[in-house]
Amino acid sequence: MKLWDKEKKTEEAVMKFTVGNDQSFDKLLAPYDIIGSMAHAIMLGKTGLLKQEEAQQILLELADYYPKAKNPSFALDPDDEDIHSHLENHLVSTLGDPGKKIHTARSRNDQVMTAMLLFMKEELRLVLEDVHVLFDALISQAELYNKYLLPGYTHTQVAMPSSFALWLGAYAESLVNDLQLMSGILKVIDQNPLGSAAGYGSSFPVDREFTTRLAGFSALQVSAVSAQLNRGKMEMHMATGLSSLANTMSRLAADMILFMSQDLNFISFRDELTTGSSIMPHKKNPDVLELVRAHCNTIMAMPGTLNGLTANLISGYHRDLQLTKEILVPGISKTKQCLQMMALMTSSMVPRDHILDDPKYALVFSVEAVNRKVMAGTPFRDAYREVAAEIESGTYQSDGNTEYTHTGSIGNPGLELITAKMQAVRGALQITPAEKIFEELKHYV
């Protein structure tokens, strides 16, 4: 039975089209819809909209059903339109009339939003765990190969001396920046829409501040209309944070693909992490890195896709918003997979030492020659021209010495400062696990 069923059978083709792929995504939302429904039932009991014994019956039944909803084999009944219909039908079949009362003072609109935001918060928490693993791998490798130099590039041309510590530390700090963006996004999505009903509130005396605390939200989405306006935008904000992470990973993967090529041979991976060719026996292909790059490029497209989906909608609910799940949910999964694979590849990477000893990299030290002349008293522009003339005439000779001391250079990559920045942003991104919220609701008296 559908929540909006009026005992008139909807055309089968219409039902198939409107439901679409919703059931496959709604399986993932089941635990979060239960948490939201538990908070709602407790509030209904507190405000007298349900008898206390009815609220307790619903609470206990939902708590009992929660482990089943988390089981990977969990599936919706074919006749259920979505997880929300499924849970209400279950409560009615097990409790009778009390089960019919769970939808008092809410709409499927605020029910969906609540479950989706709880899901997004939990998935963000899991994404952060994977980010920390990749960050730790980058810092660990940077510290291990701190003294290993490699050429830095501008315009894909050899430019100046770099180092593995500087290169890896740069991507570690980029992750810090990504999480600083996520910190702001968390503040936006961590707002409770429950009680906004269909987008215009309810004449029932609901306590929205109470459900905010119960469901583990840090703030209330105050305006009922605003709650509806934010549908689709919340998903777009989350996708924006994921796209920033994807940008970091895509560029790191691209660097690794270039650096492991036979022409450069800056880094290597054990054979088990590469693939071979069907006709070329010498090949060790970076398929993992190429797929990470490709997946990340599709993740980076998500904000634009979601923005396009929600563009030009007037205020209030529209069925268009159902499709946000089809865009965001797979993107979250791919982000976690890419983070895990990049952590594996980073921790397994073996850099080559003495790369800059090769004469073909002699010119990377030309800036050092200019700087030494300047330190000896030659004006910079004259020193630049003198070294350029030496290079042009073929008389330039490099001694391979570097004298970098400032923070964020090859002589002082500042890894401890980057680590401190990450520790600070971790403190600002504290998300209560959904399991803990459930346990507190389950034992609520």
Short description:
This protein is mostly helical and 445 residues long. It has 2 domains: 12-100, Fumarase C, Chain B, domain 1; 108-202 and 221-357 and 414-433, Fumarase/aspartase (Central domain) (Fumarase C, Chain A, domain 2, Up-down Bundle), CATH 1.20.200.
Layout of strands and helices, then pairs:
Blueprint: H1 12-19, H2 22-46, H3 52-70, H4 83-95, H5 97-100, H6 108-144, E1 149-154, E2 157-163, H7 164-189, E3 191-192, H8 208-214, E4 219-220, H9 224-229, H10 233-259, E5 267-268, H11 287-300, H12 302-310, H13 324-348, E6 350-351, H14 366-375, H15 380-393, H16 415-428, H17 434-442
Parallel strand pairs: 3-4
Antiparallel strand pairs: 1-2, 5-6
Question: How does this structure look, described?
Answer:
This protein has 445 residues and is mostly helical. It folds into 2 domains: 12-100, Fumarase/aspartase (N-terminal domain) (Fumarase C, Chain B, domain 1); 108-202 and 221-357 and 414-433, Fumarase/aspartase (Central domain) (Fumarase C, Chain A, domain 2, Up-down Bundle), CATH 1.20.200. Helix content is 60%, strand content 5%. Helix 2 (22-46) packs parallel to helix 17 (434-442), helix 10 (233-259) runs antiparallel to helix 11 and helix 12 (302-310) runs antiparallel to helix 13. It has helices spanning 12-19, 22-46, 52-70, 83-95, 97-100, 108-144, 164-189, 208-214, 224-229, 233-259, 287-300, 302-310, 324-348, 366-375, 380-393, 415-428, 434-442, and strands spanning 149-154, 157-163, 191-192, 219-220, 267-268, 350-351. Strand 1 and strand 2 form a beta hairpin. The two termini are 32 Å apart. It has 17 helices and 6 strands.
